[in-house]
Amino acid sequence: MTEILTRLPQLGQWGGTDELLAIQDQQVGQLLRWAAASPFYSRRFGAGVPASRADLLALPLTTKQDLRDNYPFGMLAVPKERLATYHESSGTAGQPTPSYYTEEDWVDLTDRYGRKWVGMDASDTFLVRTPYALMITGHLAHASARAVGATVVPGDNRSLAMPYSRVVRVLHDLDVTLTWSMPTETLLWAAAARAAGHRPGTDFPALRALFVGGEPLSPARRRRISEIWGVPVVEEYGSTETGSLAGECPHGHLHLWADRAIFEVHDPATGRTSPDGSGQLVVTPLFREAMPLLRYNLEDNVEVSYDGCPCGWHLPTVRVLGRSAFRYSVGAANVTQQRLEELVFSLPVQDEVLFWRAKAEPHRLTVEIEVPDARRDGACLALAAAVREEYGIDADVVGVPPGSLVPLHLLTAVHDVVKPRSLFGADEDWGKALLYY
Ligand SMILES: [Zn+2]
What we know:
The protein is of the alpha/beta class. The protein has helices at residues 2-7, 17-36, 39-45, 53-57, 64-69, 103-113, 137-147, 164-173, 183-195, 219-229, 337-344, 373-391, 408-412, and strands spanning 83-88, 98-102, 125-128, 151-154, 178-181, 209-212, 233-239, 243-248, 254-256, 261-267, 272-274, 277-285, 296-305, 317-322, 328-330, 333-335, 356-361, 364-370, 396-400. Zinc ion binds next to loops.
C-alpha cells in the first residue's frame, strides 16, 4: 500500500497551477485506459480509446442517472475479486446509485480525507458520527483515522445503538479529541450535553476540533458552533461516489483536491463547462480504478475560483452552495436557507438559539426559533428586524420554548440494545418476539 501512496501526488509537490495541470495530464492517459475496461465507457468510447485531456473534455458528462442505469456493476473496470467495498449514496428511494473501490483506490481515498489543516495522529480519539450502512462517509473517516494510528470510536448517527445521550457520554468520558459529523449534529450534541448537565465549552477539555461535512454551512452557523464548543470547525466536502473532494486550509478556505481529480463547472443553462465560475461541479477522479468516472456531474451548485490563497497550496477554492441555492418566493423576496441560517445564527450567543425552522408561503414567511423564556421577546424582535432589513418583508418570527423543535427525550433517551428472543415467561410480553429493534 505504501508503494501506491508514493505514486500519489502530495501537497507541496507543485509550485503553481501550471505544474498542477501537468500532474493531471500525467495521469489522464492511465485513467482513460482504466475506464475503457468498464462496459459503460467501452460502449461510450466506441472504436478508439481517448488518450488526452482534450479527448476527455470532448466526452459527454456522466450523470447520476448513468450510475443508476448501470446498477450494480455496469461501471466495473476491474475483476470483481479486486473490489474492497461496495457503497450506495443516500437519497432517492427505488433506484440505487452504486459506487465501489479497490484496496488501492482506498489508499487515495483515505489520504484525501486526511488532508485537513488540523491533522490527526496516534494520540487522537476520533468519534465517527456519520452513517456506516452502505454510504462511504463513516468508513472513509474510520479508515483514514486507522491509517494514522488514531483510536476510532464508531458512533454511526443512523444507529439506534447510539442515541445522543451515549454520544455525550463517549465525548466526555473517553476524552474524544476529534469528531466527524454533519454540522447539525454538533448543535444536537451541545443541547444533549446541556441536558446531561455539561457545559459544551468547558467540560470537554480534550476536544481539539470538529470535522464536519455533508450539509451546507453558513459562516455564521460555523462561528456559532465554534463558539459553543470552543474549538475550530473544520469543513470537508465530498460524496459517496467520489470520496473527499475538498478540504480546508489553515486560512479557512475549502480547496479542491485538483492533484487527484480534474474539476469543471457546468452551466446547465448553456451546456458549457469551464474550469472556474458558478454552476454544477463536474469531477473526474484521476486515481480510481474499480469504477472510473469521467466528467461526473455531482449536480451540486458551487463557485470555483483560481484566485491565490495565502496557504500556498496552489489549489482552486470552492464554495459549496448545494441545494441551498434553491430559492422560495415570498412576495417580491427570494428566500434561501443559507441566508436565513446566517440571520438566525447572527443573533447573540446569549440568546441560546440552536434550532429553527421556517415556512415560505407566497405572501408570508414564518420563522420559529427555540429560545428560553427570558430571551424570547428580544430574540424575536431582533430576528424580525434582520429579516426585514435583508428581504424587505415582515416575517412572523415565533419564539418557542426549548424542546419544541428538538424534543428533550430525543436528547436524553437511553435505548436498550437487545438481541432477538423467542421464549418468554408468563408475565412477559411475547409481542416483542424476534423484533429486537
Ligand atoms: Zn488556502
